[in-house]
Amino acid sequence: MALKGLDIFKLSPKKNCKECGSPTCMAFCMKVAQGAISIDKCPYFSDDAKAMLNEQTAPPMKTIAVGSHKLGGETVLYRHEKTLVNKNLYAVAVGTTLSAEEVDAKLADLQKVDYERIGERMYVEFVFVANTQSDPAVYAELVKKAAATGRDLILECWDVECAKAALEVAGKNVILDGATPDNWEAMNDIATAAGVVLGVSATSLSDLYDTVKKLEGKGNKNLVLDVTGKTAKETLANAVLVRRTAIKDGDRSFGYPSIVNVARLAKGDDHLQTAYATLFTEKYGSILVMEHMTYAQALPLYGLRQNIFTDPQKPMKVESKIYPLNGADENSPCALTVDFALTYFLVSGELERSNQPVNLIITDASGMSVLTAWAAGKFSSSTVKKTFETLDIENKIKNRTLIIPGKVAVMKGEIQEKLPGWNGDVGPLEAGRLPKYMNDME
Amino acid sequence: MAFTPKTAPFSGKINAVTLGTGDKAIVIGGQNVMPFYTFDAPIENAPKIGVEISDLAANWDAPALNEFYAGCTTMVDYAKKAETMPGADFLCLHFESADPNGENRSVAECVADAKAVADAVTMPIVIMGCKNIEKDGELFSKIAEALQGKNILVLSARNEDYKTVGASVALAYGQKVGAETADDINLAKQLNIMLKGLSINPENIVMNIGTAAVGYGFEYVASTLDRVRLAALAQSDADLQMPIMSPVSPDAWSVKESTATEEDEPAWGNREERAIDMEVSTAAANLTGGADAVIMRHPAAIATIKKFITELV
């Protein structure tokens, strides 16, 4: 974990030559320890010392890239400690036990969930292709079909010949989830030759740890760990202990992203799958494998994921624009609020419940809530005027009623001054009262 | 080199709080590990599930849910039926209709309902109000009085009314009181301290640290749960060691994912299925974060969460 300046100083050349720009070696080492400067700035550190320091100052959990996706790289166990970095991704499982028709139907189905939520594309990122037979041609055929979806692949295959055949048709964006304590050497050769990520599984954490050590000994650190156990309870223990060992105890041999096969734990119970997927979104699953992904499952799960993996220091924002609700057109009244995602969801949800057509105008307030933005000067008559100009609302909307949030009733006068012709109408203090307010207005 | 996981319970412990009386009484809390971390130490009391019964339940619009309560007209009918629901541990009577901005039903009528239910059922009872501070204050006090000896929990005392609610519910009538705050560890701690300041025994306090449906700012709930639990366990903060109860259903059933009709959102499919998954996911997320009890509505969602808890504890 974090190395102290003095530890680094012990390895330094102690010449105080100032070539690095620091007055002394000691000062330089202190800066290196804080991460303020790279050790490469010093020309006199020996390569051995550099390698050792790089190893020790590396983050506790590796970031593994598959195609355009990034997994792992976490530095904390809880999001409030700093932030979580890489959101968990989803896979849908197909396998050699299914008929060709079933496979086609599942592959077509998994592409149906594909939508945008607060600027993020929500879809099934991976196809998980399970192999349980020994004919390489059969598996390769299935993998080819899965690859045709354009999604990245996870090949769960413990048979070396099948894995070889599959990798030939699978493309580059692949995780070969096939290494076990028995076959790790052969699987390692195939995965490294093909340049793909290798997935490791074992029946116990101790075996998993030993296998990872052996793979690392061969120089392969491009790994993910399949922590799926026999039960949900065992799987949670695996996922938590692996992550905790890496981040809290600083043992990098468990510092890899994880795969959790939720489908296998829930055994065909869709609602239970939703519950398990929720659990492993919060507790350390990097890729969650589902039996399928319906909209009913996707809406809560992707929503939760978007919440959990937001940076606590950066609020979620929605785009500043006109959102016509309940079939609103240019003759419908306007309602104004800020671009803080939570505010947008609450206000738009309540306005929709009113069943009254209304144009919700979202103004740029740097993602702050109404009162915070108002206090910070990010939500004022001037910023509203700017939004009206940018969005060309004068010309786009004929109705001249503008409902402003009840909490900033004081802005009414200024807004009417800045936006001549508009009638400000003070809305309720809480979003929950909007349906009644809208219907009373009618 | 063999791998030996480092596992250990914390020195701090969540208070164990008993709700209800007799055979059906339940205990929530009591554990000294993070939620479901059975590998650190056994979980003393599995999380519990409450069934929400609203006095506006007649407006519920979901075929399987309505089918379950078919023929029920009074709150007593609903409560008796809810007691038979697989997975149910306690009942939550939700007096939404008391809202002065809504139906504005009188306190006397609500109290009569609560009394009738309490006489007809054996499961522990939790009371939720209408969110109107003044009305709730009166309602809570009257219900606590009418149900003396039943060891009910009243959700909730808030910053604005903790004195009246805390004093009447917990001190005068010996019931359990909920401490409700909005997604902030400091507010939660402060309210607990103020309730203790009224000389309410901490063993009589349950927390509601704030709620949201998943996707709707749940990060605040998740981080508050994490922080509250870590403070209670790792730092043995006695002002945060109260068990947590999360009312899940009111949020889960009111977001767009659960309310949009199939005509409005044809791609989304069956509305009831969506609402069930929304409720399941929100409940599971609360339990994963640290809730010791959740309040839910749909029989299918409750059965799922019951299985989820059983598998994990």
What does it look like?
The complex is a heterodimer of chains A (442) and B (313). Chain A is of the alpha/beta class and 442 residues long. Chain A has three domains: 5-57, 3-methyladenine DNA Glycosylase II, Chain A, domain 3; 63-308, Dihydropteroate synthase-like (TIM Barrel); 322-441, Rossmann fold (3-Layer(aba) Sandwich), CATH 3.40.50.11600. In chain A, 41% of the residues lie in helices and 18% in strands. Chain A has 18 helices and 17 strands. Chain A is flat, with a radius of gyration of 27 Å. The termini of chain A are far apart. With 313 residues, chain B is an alpha/beta fold. In chain B, 40% of the residues lie in helices and 14% in strands. The interface between A and B is large, with 57 and 55 residues.
CATH superfamily of chain B: Dihydropteroate synthase-like
Structural class of chain A: alpha/beta
CATH topology of the largest domain in chain A: TIM Barrel
CATH homologous superfamily of the largest domain in chain A?
Answer: Dihydropteroate synthase-like
Average pLDDT over all residues of chain A: 92
